[in-house]
Amino acid sequence: MIFVVLYSFVATVVSGWLAWRLLSLRARRKNRFVFGPWPVPMVALGDFDPAFSATEFGPGLGGEVHFISQGDKPAVGGVSDLESWVLSVLAKGRTRIFEFGTCTGKTTYHLARNSPADARIVTLTLPPEGHEAYVASDRDDREHGEIALRESRFTEFLYTGTEAAAKIEQLYGDSKALDDAPHAGGFDLIFIDGSHAHSYVVSDTEKALRMLKPGGIVLWHDYRPKVPGVFRHLGDLSKKLPLVHLARTSLVAYRKPA
Ligand SMILES: C[S@@+](CC[C@H](N)C(=O)[O-])C[C@H]1O[C@@H](n2cnc3c(N)ncnc32)[C@H](O)[C@@H]1O
Regarding the domain with residue range 39-255, which homologous superfamily does it belong to in the CATH classification? Predict the structure, then answer.
């Protein structure tokens, strides 16, 4: 008798655990919690911007860009191929672009390569010899502070020596120390992809919102629960601003009213 009870107890625990694992995996694949959506509402790319609208042939010509795939060797700290394509398409009509977090410069290159000839791309990175300028707050998670410093190791970039480099202004320094006053209302596309520690996401976001032109777009990378600094801040911000999570990406976007 005792074996029957024990057996059914173990079977219940194991099948409950399996069901929970399956539900969690399905939820993660769909970018939602098991019992509900993530705080920032999800929209299809075509509903966010007409450049992504589908045609009867599938994607339209509005989505044609110059593009380097991740291939089988993803760039350090890089964005996915779909995210690269989204950033490249949005760069096509924009002449003043700012990037928090250069890393290998792959996205910087995409932004320069796909923007109009008179565009200017300003990109900021913490240099390898500038780590002491990094100011973590007590509430920042250690892991993402360490990742930020580990990725701060480039002084030459994918765009270095290319024709596109003429459009790029490379800034070095800690983003909390960036004086955004001279840039107020100056940019029509801003990509926030620097340190993912919470205090930096808050600081970079505040600066980006001041630097944004009417009608301009801010994009954040890595909106997922595993990146708590980004996930928590964008959840909070979505109570004040109409943020949207672009489907099948980890990008969140805000379009400032024109
Ligand atoms: C995730 S990588 C950026 C990837 C890049 N945007 C791309 O799409 O390929 C993060 C970058 O942010 C930079 N970074 C981290 N902390 C920073 C800080 N406090 N100030 C400025 N840049 C920072 C790192 O040096 C690194 O270049």
Answer: Vaccinia Virus protein VP39 (3.40.50.150)
